[in-house]
Design goal:
The complex is a heterodimer of chains A (615) and B (458).
Chain A: H1 2-7, H2 10-22, H3 28-37, H4 42-50, H5 58-71, H6 92-213, E1 221-224, H7 241-301, H8 306-324, H9 332-366, H10 368-412, H11 414-481, H12 484-502, H13 508-521, H14 527-533, H15 543-561, H16 567-586, H17 593-597, H18 603-613
Chain B: E1 2-3, E2 7-8, E3 14-16, E4 22-27, E5 30-35, E6 41-46, E7 53-56, E8 62-67, E9 72-77, E10 84-88, E11 96-99, E12 105-109, E13 115-120, E14 126-130, E15 139-141, E16 147-154, E17 157-164, E18 169-175, E19 181-186, E20 192-197, E21 204-208, E22 213-217, E23 226-231, E24 237-242, E25 246-251, E26 257-262, E27 266-267, E28 273-280, H1 292-296, E29 303-308, E30 313-314, E31 331-336, E32 342-347, E33 353-358, E34 363-369, E35 376-379, E36 386-389, E37 394-399, E38 402-407, E39 418-421, E40 427-431, E41 435-440, H2 445-457
Parallel strand pairs in B: 28-34
Antiparallel strand pairs in B: 1-41, 2-41, 3-4, 4-5, 5-6, 7-8, 8-9, 9-10, 11-12, 12-13, 13-14, 15-16, 16-17, 17-18, 19-20, 20-21, 21-22, 23-24, 24-25, 25-26, 27-30, 28-29, 31-32, 32-33, 33-34, 35-36, 36-37, 37-38, 39-40, 40-41
The chains are: A mainly alpha (615), B mainly beta (458).
Pfam families (chain A): ADIP
GO cellular component, one term (chain A): ciliary basal body
InterPro entries (chain A): Adhesion_Centrosome_assoc, Afadin/alpha-actinin-bd
């Protein structure tokens, strides 16, 4: 209670003080003093509480407390008085109840206070966080604002620059214009000057001409031993007025003749070119028709196809044209027809090609993978075949080479080589014999070992069988003791095993398990079992039967042993298998390794297989 | 490939006769005529002064020697060594002299282009043509020798006169729409005359023989224009090289531009082969190519070979001086091969390179970059073989199979400044400042394959 008081806010304290002040409490003065001192130290409070009630003022304090409590809504501490005059007596039960209630209340308040405190803390931290956030955001805002200002500044600068550049460009343009004008004016001036100068020059020339030429310069002369004949052998003729005119006409004629010849030559060339082009065009047309008509046969059969009608038109045109092409093609109408028909056909061809393109792309998209795979397979097959062939050819070549060499060897010196060969053969024979004996000894050893191993294995199997029987009996007892659960269990197992028996290849793990079971299930071990396990051997027809029998056997055995295969149980099996493995590794042969891999653990079968392999 | 011994020469005057039988060369004032195959001296004529111009008549019977300094032309006959003819232009002076196409007339241009005098060797008649224009190429004959086109200038306007060469009658006279005509050239078929303006304006005009304007072509304005013009031998194309470093090709049907060949300084197209001349140290192994005589030659001049440069190739460019006249920019030389298949060009701002264009495909085929600036190139008259000289001691040959660089043997440095093909295309005269020698391209089977192989591997 004291603690509670200390942690309450000063405000609430004053309120309580206020309420308590209305009724003068005996210690109100004191309490006021305490409040005035405003040092709500726990010590003081404690002392204050201890000073609240003394021997003398019990009555008063009780009444005071009663008053206080009633004001707070608690039942009165006093017993209900029957009469007025009777002095009220303190009800202990009520006091205790009050106390209890107060305590409960206080605990509740404490809890609430704690909650509030934690909430306050949370809120405080939230507040901090938010403040941090706010600060950060404020910073961000500031930086972005600064950035924006910077960008704006740059933008402004760039704009300024741009304006300047524009101005410069304009200036340059103006300059160019000006310069062009200057050039033009200079050019005209230059031309003018030139003309003037030239005129002067011409005048001078004229003057010089007169001076030089009209002086009858005797020096200007040709000394020649004798005049030579003309190239054409003609003699130079004197020119008169008449002849000059005729000469002129003749020259004109000749000139025009030359020009005409040139033009004729050119025309001929152009005609030839034209003819060639026409030929090409005609051929193209023909080819187009032949290319397009068979493909369009089908659509034309549909009758409503518009292209079909176009085609028929075209073909008619073509027929006409081919008839007309016998005559000259240069006629304008024919030309028009030709170009029109070509244009039409071209359009058709174009659409057709486009269609084909689309189809091709579709096909390409759809059938890309399949075709690719198929082709690759084919390719691989082909390459394999070829490789095989190459291999064969190589072998052939090798054998041929060997034969050739042998022949050569025999041919070169028969006698010595045969002798030598004999020697070698004898030596080799002896060596081989030695090796053979060694090998036989080894084999014997191996067999011995193998026998001992098999014996050990059989012994193990027997031991295991005994153990199993013991175990079975024990389990039987257990089973008999247990009732409902086990029954269900056994049923499940039955189903399980039946399933494994029906679909043999789907559950290999189960099989191995059942196979492991086998030796003690069917200790005699039929030879059929080996045929199943050694896949390299030809499959006997009894395999399926075997499967069934095996499943049956496993069923039987499980029904006895309830198939609670614990790790301890499988261990001996594994040991056995390991044994077998070791043995196999010792007498490993390429053919027998497969058998090893088939996961067989039964020692008996192993020995049997080995027997098969023996020579 | 064999080389003749070296003969003396002056003023680069050495010419094969049109029939290919003779070779005329000048040494100072002497004219030497040799047999073109044996190089034996057949005739020796002595002129009055140093010969400055030499020309064979079309029938290979006469040789014209012009002595501009004295205003004299001397003509010699091969058939009659004692025959002589001397034409004196007197005080009018002489700046150019040439044969008429019949080989019986000589056209002399007087100083200041006052007039052209046509002298006849058959008659005493003399004709005068007034107002010839002083320009780059103002006089041109048709290939059949029938007509002469002459550029004239009267009253500050350009005219073209067409004369009939048989009697020097004026056939046509028309003014051309040019500011300052720079050159005229007949198409090889003799029916179209190309007229181009001076470099200040890009303008090509095409006139028919009868004086009609067929077409005018202007690629651009306000910039330096045409630098060189060439007709294809079939008269099918007119190639125009201009100062913008491009060649534009016009066709003969519409006279419009077919294509434009730029000459960029970097070539980056794997289809184009760039042959780069590279010097190589001489004593590395024996070589099948220059013959033993070349090995005996001086070791001072290093040999060179062509290497195929890997793309991209940047060619050596010359920075033109902008403040001088006749800037070294633009396509200044271009020539079609005799079979019309190829066009060789030189951009003067990339002086070391010769560009060879395939006219059938209208694209660049090969670029030959030499170590020195290309002085001259000329197509072989029979086969598409281009001979190039750079003023060094080597001659370079290109053919579609490849190209070779051949060292000219001889004592001292033989600097090939110019070259001219024998009309048969079997030999080549290489001219240096004061010597010349003949280079025989024996195109027998063995040599031919060697040529091809060499071309391929280098």
């Amino acid at each position: 209670m004291g603690d509670w008081m200390t942690v309450t806010d000063p405000e609430s304290k004053t309120i309580s003080q206020y309420t308590s002040e209305t009724k003068m409490s005996p210690s109100s003065l004191y309490s006021q003093q305490v409040l005035c001192s405003s040092i709500p130290l726990s010590k003081n409070v404690h002392s204050y509480f201890s000073a609240f009630c003394t021997e003398e003022n019990i009555e008063q304090s009780i009444s005071y407390l009663d008053q206080e409590l009633t004001t707070f809504g608690f039942p009165s501490l006093y017993e209900e008085s029957k009469g007025k005059e009777t002095k009220r007596e303190l009800n202990i039960v009520a006091v205790l109840n009050c106390m209890n209630e107060l305590l409960v209340l206080q605990r509740k308040n404490l809890l609430a206070q704690e909650n509030v405190e934690t909430q306050n803390l949370k809120l405080g931290s939230d507040m901090d966080h938010l403040q941090n956030c706010y600060a950060k955001l404020k910073e961000q805002l500031e930086t972005s604002r600064r950035e924006m200002i910077g960008l704006q500044e740059r933008d402004r600068q760039l704009q300024c620059k741009n304006r300047n550049l524009h101005q410069l460009l304009k200036n340059e343009k103006d300059e160019v214009q000006k310069l062009q004008n200057i050039i033009a004016s200079r050019a005209t001036q230059y031309n003018h000057d030139m003309k003037r100068k030239e005129r002067e020059y011409n005048k001078l020339k004229e003057r010089l001409h007169q001076l030089v030429m009209n002086k009858k310069d005797k020096k200007i002369a040709m000394e020649v031993l004798n005049y030579v004949g003309r190239v054409d052998g003609k003699r130079g003729s004197w020119r008169t007025g008449k002849t000059e005119a005729s000469f002129f006409l003749r020259n004109e004629d000749e000139m025009y003749k030359i020009l005409l010849n040139d033009y004729e030559y050119r025309q001929k060339q152009i005609l030839m070119e034209n003819a060639e082009l026409k030929k090409v065009l005609q051929q193209m047309k023909k080819e187009m028709i032949s290319l397009l008509s068979p493909q369009k046969q089908k659509p034309r059969e549909r009758a409503d196809d518009s292209t079909g009608t176009v085609i028929s038109d075209v073909e008619e045109d073509a027929g006409e044209l081919s008839r007309e092409s016998i005559w000259d093609l240069s006629c304008e109408t024919v030309r028009e027809q030709l170009t029109n028909s070509i244009r039409k056909q071209w359009r058709i061809l174009k659409s057709h090609v486009e269609k084909l393109d689309n189809q091709v792309s579709k096909v390409h998209l759809e059938g890309f993978n399949d075709e690719d795979v198929i082709s690759r397979q084919d390719h691989e097959q082909e390459t394999e075949k070829l490789e095989l062939e190459i291999q064969q050819c190589k072998e052939m070549i090798k054998t041929q080479q060997q034969l050739l060499q042998q022949q050569l060897a025999t041919a070169c010196d028969d006698d010595t080589t045969s002798l030598l060969r004999d020697c070698y053969l004898l030596e080799e024979k002896e060596r081989l014999k030695e090796e053979w004996s060694l090998f036989k000894e080894q084999k014997k050893n191996f067999e011995k070992e193998r026998r001992s191993f098999t014996e050990a294995a059989i012994r193990l199997g027997l031991e295991r069988k005994a153990f199993e029987e013991e175990r079975a009996s024990w389990l039987k007892q257990q089973f008999l003791n247990m009732t409902t659960f086990d029954h269900q269990n056994s049923e499940n197992v039955k189903l399980f095993s039946a399933f494994s028996g029906s679909s043999d290849r789907d559950t290999p793990t189960l099989h191995s398990r059942s196979r492991q079971k086998k030796p003690h299930g069917v200790p005699s071990g039929s030879p059929v079992c080996t045929s199943k396990l050694t896949k390299s051997l030809p499959a006997s027809p009894s395999t399926s039967d075997f499967c069934q029998t095996r499943s049956c056997a496993s069923e039987h055995s499980s029904s006895i042993s309830v198939l609670n295969i614990t790790p301890e149980e499988t261990k001996p099996n594994q040991v056995g298998r390991e044994c077998a493995h070791q043995k196999w590794s010792m007498s490993s042969r390429p053919g027998s390794q497969e058998v090893c891999y088939s996961g067989c653990s039964s020692t008996y079968t192993n020995s049997h297989v080995e027997k098969d392999d023996l020579p | 490939m064999n080389f003749s011994e070296v003969f003396k020469l002056s003023s680069l005057l050495c010419k094969f006769s049109p029939d290919g039988k003779y070779l005329a060369s000048c040494v100072q004032y002497r004219l030497v005529v040799r047999d073109a195959s044996t190089l034996q001296i057949l005739q020796l004529y002595t002129c009055l002064d140093q010969i400055q111009h030499l020309e064979w008549s079309a029938d290979s019977l006469f040789i014209l020697c012009a002595l501009y300094k004295r205003g004299l032309v001397q003509v010699w006959s091969l058939e009659q060594p004692e025959w002589h003819c001397k034409i004196d232009e007197g005080s009018a002076g002489l700046v150019a002299s040439c044969w008429g196409p019949d080989g019986r007339h000589i056209l002399n241009t007087t100083e200041f282009h006052l007039r052209i005098t046509v002298w006849s060797l058959c008659t005493k008649s003399v004709s005068y043509i007034k107002y010839p224009k002083a320009c780059q190429q103002g006089i041109t004959f048709t290939r059949d020798g029938r007509y002469l086109a002459l550029a004239e200038r009267r009253d500050c306007r350009d005219y073209v006169s067409i004369f009939v060469c048989s009697d020097w009658q004026l056939l046509r006279h028309f003014d051309t729409d040019t500011q300052d005509l720079a050159g005229i050239e007949w198409a090889p078929n003799g029916c179209v005359l190309a007229v181009w303006d001076s470099c200040l304006e890009y303008k090509v005009l095409l006139y028919s023989l009868d004086g009609r304007l067929l077409s005018a072509f202007c690629a651009y304005e306000w910039s330096l224009g045409i630098k060189a013009v060439a007709w294809s031998p079939s008269s099918q194309f007119l190639a125009i090289g201009s100062y913008d470093g491009k060649v534009r090709i016009l066709n003969h049907v519409t006279w419009k531009m077919i294509t434009e060949f730029g000459h960029p300084a970097t070539v980056n197209n794997p289809k184009i082969v760039v042959y780069k001349e590279a010097e190589k140290s001489p004593p590395l192994g024996h070589l099948a190519f220059p013959p033993p005589r070349a090995v005996a030659g001086p070791l001072t001049s290093s040999e060179s070979k062509y290497e195929i440069a890997s793309m991209p190739v940047s060619l050596q460019t010359l920075k033109p001086a902008a403040d001088r006249a006749n800037p070294r920019i633009g396509v200044g030389a271009l020539a079609f091969s005799p079979d019309n298949y190829f066009l060789a060009t030189r951009n003067d701002s990339i002086p070391n390179a010769v560009w060879i264009w395939d006219i059938r495909k209208l694209r660049l085929l090969a670029v030959l970059e030499q170590l020195c600036a290309v002085r001259a190139f000329q197509w072989g008259p029979q086969q598409p073989r281009l001979a190039i000289c750079t003023g060094g001691s080597k001659v370079y040959l290109w053919s579609p199979a490849g190209c070779v660089s051949v060292q000219v043997p001889g004592e001292g440095d033989f600097q090939v400044l110019s070259l001219c093909w024998h009309p048969s295309g079997d030999s080549l005269a290489l001219l240096s400042k004061d010597h010349f020698c003949l280079c025989f391209l024996e195109m027998e089977e063995g040599v031919h394959t060697a040529f091809g192989q060499r071309g391929d591997c280098t």
